[in-house]
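Bump. Still looking for Flavin reductase structure tokens.
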Amino acid sequence: MPRRALALSKVYGLLEPGPVVLLTTAHGGHRDIMALSWHTMMEFEPPLVGCVISNRNHSFGLLKTTRECVLNIPSVDLAEQVVGCGNTSGRRVDKFARFGLTARPASRVAAPLIAECFANLECRVVDTRLVPKYCFFVLEVVKAWKDAALPPQTIHHLGRGEFVVSGEHLKLKSKMK
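Sorry for the wait, here they are.
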């Protein structure tokens, strides 16, 4: 199979680790939603998630101040709202209102859940040592919620407005429980 060189700026589209999530934060009566695809699992128990949030994003300051958030996992039917949240700054816009999303109270953090998402992970920041250099936060999931239905199709960002929708589910023999 012939190969061609790939621009280094496109490498991340090959390695995106998981579905696009909607990260919610809240502070001082203000709440925000940002689309996030640069995240990775770091540990199973307790569940730790690492994520990169640019210090140019409004959510960066909210997360740094409050040290808590919710990772809301949308299905493909929310793709337009996900892209809208990703292309809009929350500094002056209520993204819940603009994109027709419903905020629900979380049980362990002040940031809201998004009711339309099939799963919600309430998180607290547990490590900020890599924030100054890489804007990399380590989050501990302290409460998790999931719709009882079968897993829906998720969206995965490839860059520059392109996405892949998760496909067929496979169940193969594994030693992991």
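The two ends are 38 Å apart (CA to CA).

Edit: fixed formatting.
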